[in-house]
């Protein structure tokens, strides 16, 4: 079973293995110029730790960046040993149609289309799609197709993701580094590593 966590600067509201791992890796990521977007731990026998990261400066990350992140996070997990036994690490960029996991994601991608699902229905609905209007202290804001606006409480968000559009592709293209990087940017494939904690 997968766990999905919205991560922000205050991890005190999060519990469990994902929160412990996040607390351990966030400083190391920041030292390298990256930030954690999302973390999930999947599986039981040989868990897979999925780390999704962004650059602190907002530009797209490269495959080489994912390799650096994988090496650093793998070393931190090996030393701190939060997972008993063997585990696998997957590192990826947030991608173009990225998840919206933090208030700043909602603010950064204001004006773009997104879809979201919440745990507790609002007016009988759990699923929403519309134009991102940013965030407030309660949650992410969407303008729905009928013109109405809804605030989706961060604590109730099950998942939220940008919808791939030409406008989003163009906005992402403008964030790309100069041509020395591959034109498609980002991490098209997941970078994997394995580790083993002490039993």
TrEMBL record:
Residues 100-165 form the Ribosome maturation factor RimP C-terminal domain. GO terms for biological process: ribosomal small subunit assembly; translation. Residues 27-97 form the Ribosome maturation factor RimP N-terminal domain. Keywords: Cytoplasm, Ribosome biogenesis. Residues 174-199 are annotated as: Disordered. It comes from Acetobacter oeni. InterPro entries: Ribosome_maturation_RimP, RimP_C, RimP_C_sf, RimP_N, RimP_N_sf. The gene is rimP. Required for maturation of 30S ribosomal subunits. CDD domains: YlxS_C. It holds the Pfam family RimP_N. Gene3D superfamilies: RimP-like superfamily, N-terminal. PANTHER family: RIBOSOME MATURATION FACTOR RIMP (PTHR33867). This is Ribosome maturation factor RimP. Belongs to the RimP family. It is found in: Cytoplasm. SUPFAM superfamilies: YhbC-like, C-terminal domain, YhbC-like, N-terminal domain. The keyword S-adenosyl-L-methionine does not apply. GO terms for cellular component: cytosol.
